Amino acid sequence: MKVATRIRRSARVGRTAVQLWLRYKAPAVGRRLSGREPASAAIMNRRHERTADQILKLALSMRGVMIKMCQAVATRADMFPPEFIEKLKQCHDAVPFQPFEVVRAVVERELGKPLDAVFSEFEEQPIAAASLAQVHAAKLHDGREVAVKVQYPDIEDIIRTDLNNMQRVCRIYEFFDPQPLELMPLLKELTTHLSYELDFEREADCSERVLELFSDDDRVKIPEVYREWSTKRVLVMEKISGIKITERAAIEAAGLDPADVVQDLMYIYVRMILAAGFFQADPHPGNLFVTPEGQVIVIDFGLSKELPEGFGLGLFELMFSLMTFNESAMVRAFGELGFRSKSGDDDTFLAIARRMVSRSDSGSFEGEFTEEMTDELFAAIREDPVAEVPSDFVLVARVFSFLSGIAHTLGSRANVLRAMGASTG
Amino acid sequence: MSATASPLHYSEEELLSSGSFREPLFANGVRCHGGFDDEGRYCSPRVLFRNPAINAWQDRLRQGGDTLFEISPDLIPPVHPNVAQAKLLLQNGVREPIVRALTIISIVEGFGAMIRDVKVPDLESLLVEPIHGTALAHLQRGLFEAHARDESGYRDEGGHKQMWEAARDAALENPKIPGDVLMRLMGRRDQRGRRKPLFPEIGEDLERSLGFMANVLVVEVMAAETFQWGIDLLSDPEISAAPEEAGGMVENIRADEKPHVEYLRTALSEVAARTIRTVDGKQISGKVVIDGLLHGILSEVIKNRRSDQRDDLREGLEKAVQVAAHPQRLLEDFDSLEFDWTPPSQTGFEASEAA
Description:
With 425 residues, chain A is an alpha+beta fold. In chain A, 55% of the residues lie in helices and 11% in strands.
């Protein structure tokens, strides 16, 4: 990347950061000096909306880490207000793609031969585009249909520059703000996830690991990676077609019961997360399909995560205690999972547990960990002095709330306990 | 709380209420349900009205000339590994398989809480005869909820899940829980796929809820053997660090489980004594349906339960025994303690199936 581009990117990030800081801090200082009450909730909500909008526009024009950062913020309802979460969620769908010539150059450089030497056909229009790569349909010379995931050129460089910029901005912000939001851990986590997602060889390993986990299970379909044509920046995989998992009418038209699809999807994720401790952490509807025979297709293992030993069982205990209204078990599970309160005692967690179990109007959670429950839990964490929320928990909670959203779209419920085989009736 | 006006009709609050305890039950530092009376005897939770209610419903059933069915204890397969085998492993330092087994028992007990999510369809309209003053009329008015709370705890009290964990931790001194517990649990419980309806004529919702209740009843009946196994093993001072506490805890769980078996078999017997309206406007004997469901579940359990347990244990046993001084000899000794069990040829529920 050219030096001028680096400077320009740094300047844009810096300028926006200063604007945002002033937007929040200047009115607060003004009100304090003039003896007025702090800004009302309505004023703060409007301010959050305006800020989130500005950040989204910056991210979509700069791409790279900015998009990833927005996606990361959109998953942290425990730290950021709902206006940020709602607005920045759009980063999942709004990424523009690169022209075919750029893609061709990357593929040829990575494979060390002309495109035609490997593929008999290669669709110029991508079938999907994300922040780090885009995917094209193609055909190998032996006739196999493949999906080719191609990393954007210079993306590593862009990411390095953007991460440095953000680190600087965060340090300056933390220096000046007496009560800063703890952004550095978020940035550190983002850096780790980006390093995973940029390494397509790691992605191939993860994909094969999940394939092995479900090798004897015909409810799941994981695309095979063709290693001979894959590199750190190009991934060639078996192309599997299916119905997008949120398309209820199409699923029903194929003669499938959406409730069965939901239960199989839950089984897959419960087995990965709770039982195996290794999972594909990005179950948005663009990564999940259903074959006409009812198999659930899972793609994109770029963001796959290994959980610490015992985490799956601890997580099960937390979810189970919540679903069975057991506050004391919930408090123990918080501790086992690595949550820490600022006071060091359990009162904070007991208050959160009571708030959570009092949520059910019907006296039942039906084995489900919903998006609303995740939001409520994170709101409770934001309002109470919880010093440390394990980042793995945040990722997993996000996965379960995604799954719950898909289940509701299909008119069903994402029952974790039934997915574990708890109901045999 | 005042005594109820009629022995056949109870409010939800009554069915969930407990007597007073002199001392609450604590297990390994965890507050659990139930407690001890002035004589130091354990008193189960939520039985102040539940037990008399169940007795009254059973009496009414018998007085009406109907049968309160029983599942023969002969159908219960012995637990694998048996007590002698489990003791042998523990005495040789092979703790993992037993810790895993006890942990899985605790989780499965906790799963019993799912009964509160069973949606029983409107039985008043689905059954020809009235259900006023029966266990059936109280399923979703306290009986399911009491059962759920007993199994997985509620609010600040632990239930059977936590009590089994406490017994395990006291007896085996807070052992490390194997990381594959949930994988083994899921592997075992999810191989058989979706069950096809046996009685499509009664409608999916009714069969699902009756099937669930029949299934839980069978699990509860089979658990009798597991309780005895847990008591014999965990109260053995040769392998247990807290024989009295751990064994006593399983005794308490066993006492709590009795009303579960009784209300479920009462409610299912009440269905068997009635006539079910089918979805196409015809009628079918409740006995045919209940016997058919029980026969199907029992046949599967007596066929698979023991082999499932053996396969589960065997899967990791050869690796687990490597911590022993003489692994091969230990395996041979372990196998020599095995005893045969021949499942009965009949479940006792066949006759109506053929009707």
